[in-house]
Amino acid sequence: MKKNILITGASRGIGKATAEYLARENYNLILVARNESSLLNLAENLGQDITVFPYDLSDLEHISQIFEHLAQKGIKLDGLVHCAGVNNDIPIRNNNIDLMRETLTINYMSFVELVKYFSKKKYSNDGASIVAISSLATNFFSAGMSTYTSSKAALEATIKIAAKEFIKRKIRVNGIAPNCVDTEMVENAPFLTDEKISRSQGLGIIEPIHIAYLAEFLMSDKSNYITGAIIPVSAGTV
Q1: Which residues make Cβ contacts (< 8 Å) with residue 115, sequence separation at least 6?
Q2: Which tens digit of pLDDT belongs to each residue from 3-49?
Q3: pTM of the prediction?
Q4: Catalytic positions
Q5: Kind and range of the H or E run holding 52
């Protein structure tokens, strides 16, 4: 039976690459992102019966609507891949509360709310899998990235706690922590120049499809005994 997988941040970057790869691997997909037109275009290009739910994850109070919509369609989830994220790099001395709040809300707080609803029996099947995209920034601290790094550190802590809390339903919870991936987020990050990436990542900038490969492995039965793990994809980071 085909698995039903919810992907956030599906309109671009790692989320889009994951959606494209999981579609090729014959999963049923539910795509969530703010940009409705991008989601519809992606769904059309995938050429399958894709469920699209445009939603801004900064609206924490109504995240339940995503799951209620799926329940009304008779869809119970087997997986969640949380790819949505923002990177508002700013030095601590110039900290902006609004940017800090946005980063923490999208990268961390929305994940907690998503997992809260995902964990309910009426929305997911036993033995399901949850994966969140973290960052190797939590191991290699860089100037100017305090808010982003803190949001990912909080995310990783919740991954490990959720893995313990959901073990009775055999719901596995894991994270993927890549260094610089070839996405718009990295391209637009002021502290990440091409020269800096080339110097620090001996294997080069990471193609998003390679994160998608790992996400699919964690969605599959091949990873049935992996939970509470944060899997680094360093590209030889030094």
Answers
A1: 80, 130, 158, 162, 173
A2: 999 999 999 999 999 999 999 999 999 999 999 999 999 999 997 77
A3: 0.91
A4: 134, 148, 152
A5: strand 51-54
